[in-house]
Amino acid sequence: MTRKRKIILTGLVSLVLPLYGQHLPYQDPSLSSLERARDLCSRLTLREKSKLMRNGSPAIPRLGIPQFEWWNEGLHGIARNGFATVFPENTGMAASFDDALLYQVFTVVSTEAVAKANIARNSGNIGRYQGVSIWTPNINIFRDPRWGRGMETYGEDPYLTSRMGIAVVDGLQGQPWQQDLKPLTQKPHYYKTLSCVKHFAIHSGPEWNRHVFNLEDLPERDLWETYLPAFKALTTIGNVREVMCAYQRFDGQPCCGNTRLLGQILRDEWKYDGLVVSDCGAISDFFKEGHHHVVNTPSEASAQAVGAGTDVECGAVYGSLPDAVSKGLINEAKIDTSVVRLLKARFEVGDFDDETRVP
């Protein structure tokens, strides 16, 4: 072996050995999920961060990061993933007025979700609808029977929606049932799945114009007494780990780039510490002709969405984030805030830990 080749080989080994020869902080299950997320984020390149911020998140072998899929559905049973128990539609379950029953129902849903996710993971490929991030419940208020997705909700009453929604979240995440609607005092070491409340906010149909509609002049009383109570309950009491932002605009800003909804209300007033995920294709609405078209390019759209607080995109626009940074539209520190949130959620569900540690 020549001296030059020996130097190159020694250098390569020195880069690889740290991952195998020592225990890096993010690999230590005794640390908090937040500590592990911050450490792992610091080791990622900007391009790797942008890949992790999309729903179909690829593996990053050099850091031992497994593949992850954020998009799964379970409104009344695991959907689009083979045989599963199917329960009544959500308005039917709400008509029971029995939140204890819903807790039992969604305990079954989460058990089946975990079982199917384990099968997918062991196969070496996790596809859409096969992960442990469940985009449920839909806690929008059902005000007009012409809305074709109204059956996904728990009806028109904010209080009933809050009670049913918390039971659903508890069943999905493996939390003790909060019958008295008091905040959790003890969180599980690992969540069973990650529940996601949607669509934040003020979305009650119709579907046909959701990619262009701008909701203006909504009375503040209607905002706070009708549309927001269930979201407030599930983020402050229910400990839900994901919030999905809606398609439409509110006071001129798309909900997934809305500084009042995602910043002032969700983060500042409610102190929500989970992650925000976009509805599918919502970020591309920012720049598409004939849609919201509030900006002109994917880079501007991704910068606006991440800047407002949307951490994970269902779509592919976040691939432009490195370009947005190079153009000065957003700084990498803001992207790190989102990456830490999404990695924290993955650590909370045991995604990086040995399966013998995770129930």
Write up this protein.
With 359 residues, this protein is of the alpha/beta class. A hairpin with a 2-residue loop joins β7 and β8. The protein has helices spanning 3-21, 33-41, 46-52, 90-94, 99-123, 158-173, 220-227, 229-236, 259-269, 298-308, 321-326, 332-348; strands at residues 56-57, 68-69, 133-134, 194-200, 214-215, 242-245, 249-250, 253-254, 275-278. Residues 6-18 have low confidence and may be disordered. The strands form 3 sheets. Strands 3-4-6-9 form a 4-stranded parallel β-sheet. The protein has a 3-stranded mixed β-sheet with strand order 5-7-8, with no helix packed on it. α3 packs across α12, α5 (99-123) runs parallel beside α6 and α6 packs parallel to α8 (229-236).
List the SSEs and their pairings.
Layout: H1 3-21, H2 33-41, H3 46-52, E1 56-57, E2 68-69, H4 90-94, H5 99-123, E3 133-134, H6 158-173, E4 194-200, E5 214-215, H7 220-227, H8 229-236, E6 242-245, E7 249-250, E8 253-254, H9 259-269, E9 275-278, H10 298-308, H11 321-326, H12 332-348
Parallel strand pairs: 3-4, 4-6, 5-7, 6-9
Antiparallel strand pairs: 1-2, 7-8
Helix pairs in contact: 2-12, 3-12, 5-6, 6-8
